[in-house]
Amino acid sequence: MLPLRALLVEQPDQAHEPTGYRMTKLPATTPIADLVRWAKMRWRIEHDYRALKHGLGLDHFEGRTWRGWLHHVTLVTAAQAFLTLRRLDPTAQMPA
User: Fold this and answer.
1) What are residue 10's DSSP bridge partners?
2) What pLDDT digit, counting tens, does each position of 15-55 carry?
3) What is the pLDDT of residues 57-90, one digit of tens each?
4) Separation of alpha carbons 80 and 84, rounded Å
5) How far apart are CA 9 and CA 25, in angstroms?
6) DSSP secondary structure of the chain
7) Which residues of 1-96 form beta strands (DSSP E)?
8) Which residues have CB under 8 Å from 18's CB, separation 6+?
9) Where are the domains of the chain?
């Protein structure tokens, strides 16, 4: 017997056909809102990784030591955490 799977289909109102598909093996009692939120989380992760590489210079390290690389990654990660907290803070004023 095959394990039970669910298919989550994304189709915006203006689209004539589905624009995305996702398979899940989560329990059938999982709320649809949670399934959608977790499916959309992949976009956020990819966006943040791209920002780490291109916006904050994660891939610009040219040193030769393990300690230097760890220092670089730590600073880039701290900058990303700061920017994420600023983005999530409704009272923060982002520069124009």
Assistant:
1) 20
2) 899 888 888 888 888 898 998 898 888 888 898 889 889 88
3) 988 888 889 999 999 999 999 999 998 899 888 8
4) 6
5) 14
6) -PPP-EEEEE--TT-SS--EEEEE-S-TTS-HHHHHHHHHHHHHHHHHHHIIIIIS-GGG---S-HHHHHHHHHHHHHHHHHHHHHHH-TT-----
7) 6-10, 20-24
8) 9, 10, 11
9) 1-43, 57-86
